[in-house]
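User: Quick sanity check before I run a bigger batch. Here is a single chain. Can you write out its predicted 3D structure?
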Amino acid sequence: MWVAWLVAVATLPWAASAEAPTASDATVERDLIPRPKGPASISPAEVDGALDRGRKFLVGIQNADGSFGSPENTKDLNIIAGVGSHHGFRVATTALCVQALIEEHDGSDDLTRAIEKGEEWLFEELPKVRRDNPMLIYNVWAHGYGIQALVAMHGRLPDDAARREQIAGLIRGQYEKLEKYESAEGGWGYYDFKNGTQRPASSSISFVNAMVLVAFADARGIGVPPPEKITKRAVAATEMQMLPDFSYLYGSYLRNKPRRDINRPAGSLGRTQACNLALRLWGNEKITDQVYEDWLDRLVTRNGWLDLGRKRPIPHESFFQVAGYFYYFGHYYAGRVIEQLPLERRPFYQDHLARIVIDVQDADGSWWDYPLYNYHQQYGTAYAIMTLHRCRRPPE
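Assistant: Done. Predicted structure follows.
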């Protein structure tokens, strides 16, 4: 039943036309992009307060062993996941939380202990992450976000040369895993519905590729570059899914249906920020600052398309087949896009993004977008903290 449901979700005949937009269509559409007005005033104290509540939530919900998340809190409709999948989910969630706490370390003893416990758990568990079974390849999230967390850990204690070398070795170990689990199409997917072969026959999924490529760029920045072959193949697989208006296909399996709702601009809002960033970091000259700003403008003015899917329990049940889990993912990568803009262009988008994220913080200090066992509050809060971290403006 679960397999049938997952296949149905992946192949539903959403929307109508199968005609891809042309370059001239994209030019006309760009002229119609709604541009946001000046953001509402937001004070540094408001950003600091939201971040403080988020940090306290993560410290309070950390497991005794240092990890974040668990397979508890099931619902009537659960994403299929075996023991190996849950290990991957927990490692990916812990990696995001550790990275968020490192980025927003306030110097307190409680936060230092939480970071140290999380790091110790990652040192032990990240090398153990594997594919669950021939169909389920959720472990790719742990490999990608594990690399990002390791990069953050590498910068935390710069005078500890032995620790840094250990971290570099762990990053290279994750490269080996990503080579092993690379899709035959290039890039990565998280399901193999086709053959269940040792080399996955999964569709290449645009936003998974983007997640890994951004992590690769982070690791390159500390002198641990990724393997050239899989990087080039992932870039090519993502470029193949880029439409002329810089929407991105959900995955390569939709290459012949580019105008399904999920592939249109509203359906791509949560993917485009990550995909644009990944391709720009790896040399794609089509991704200009203007393209960045066009899609930040879309994210601000059309944010409702993402928000309508937030906290819905069924993947892709919202308009334009938006799934709830794109919400904080999309905003996190928007924050990273803002970091790429010229300094004078950043404050406008930082204030807009901060307002969006702060306004949806829950009373307990958490943020979450999709009920995923007992991982969602943890990963959602980590994404939101890292988003707001990039909305901080230097003192004038």
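The chain has one domain: 15-389.

User: Great, the batch can go ahead then.
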